[in-house]
Design goal:
heterodimer; A: mainly beta; 6-stranded mixed sheet; 4-stranded antiparallel sheet; 0% helix; 50% strand; globular; B: mainly beta; 7-stranded mixed sheet
């Protein structure tokens, strides 16, 4: 069955970076793009960007340019998102989800930014 | 970017009641290819969102047929014909017609009356 397995919760200090992963299984990894979504209580669901898992090409929401960097390792069917220069506003749950229809989601990663 | 406005923000229902959720778009979601990429998600408490309906009215595999979607252009509706306890949570609409970026509605919380 299709699964997207994300890495564990992160506690990070302001100004630092975190890199979270999303490992796919149960389907041909390069047949679907992977998107990343931010969820906060106040802002709901926000699209961060997507990565073409075949070519590595990326698209970013303007709001997250310079904040998020998306990469992929086809050999392990894993997508990654690095968040840099963290501030408390980056504290949220981050999901990966399969495009085109958001038909499968990871379990989410809670990132907490605190000194 | 396309703005999706969901109403109501909160919906109280009894088990067995039929309810509807509205999603209104700031632009027509009819794509130049003739398709309309408006989808509905449900996020149960403590869980990830899951896809219920895609392209306005197509039921995702495994989703009960008490869920139905309708609409066109800028106005869309999700209907639940006979709420069950497992339906409680937050419903989101999301558009892909004018993507990227994909944009989400603000959510409608379905709770028990």
């Amino acid at each position: 069955q299709v699964q997207l397995q994300q890495s564990g919760a992160e506690l990070a200090k302001p100004g630092s970076s975190v890199k979270i992963s999303c490992k796919a299984s149960g389907y041909t990894f390069t047949s679907y793009y992977i998107s990343w979504i931010k969820q906060t209580t106040g802002q709901g669901l926000e699209y961060i960007g997507y990565i073409n898992t075949g070519s590595g090409g990326t698209n970013y929401n303007e709001k997250f340019k310079g904040k998020a960097t998306l990469t992929v390792d086809k050999s392990s069917s894993t997508a990654f998102m690095q968040l840099s220069s963290l501030t408390p506003d980056d504290s949220a749950v981050y999901y990966c989800a399969r495009l085109q229809w958001f038909d499968y989601w990871g379990q989410g990663v809670m990132v907490t930014v605190s000194s | 970017d396309v703005v999706l406005t969901q109403t109501p923000p909160t919906l109280s229902a009894t088990i067995g009641q039929s309810v509807s959720i509205s999603c209104r778009s700031s632009q027509s979601l009819l794509h130049s290819n003739g398709n309309t990429y408006l989808h509905w998600l449900l996020q149960r408490p403590g869980q990830s969102p899951q896809l219920l309906i895609y392209s306005v009215s197509r039921l995702e595999s495994g989703v009960p047929n008490r869920f139905s979607g309708s609409g066109s252009g800028t106005d869309f509706t999700l209907k639940i014909s006979g709420v069950e306890a497992e339906d409680l949570g937050v419903y989101y609409c999301v558009q892909g017609t004018h993507a990227p970026p994909w944009t989400f509605g603000g959510g409608t919380k379905l709770e028990l009356k």
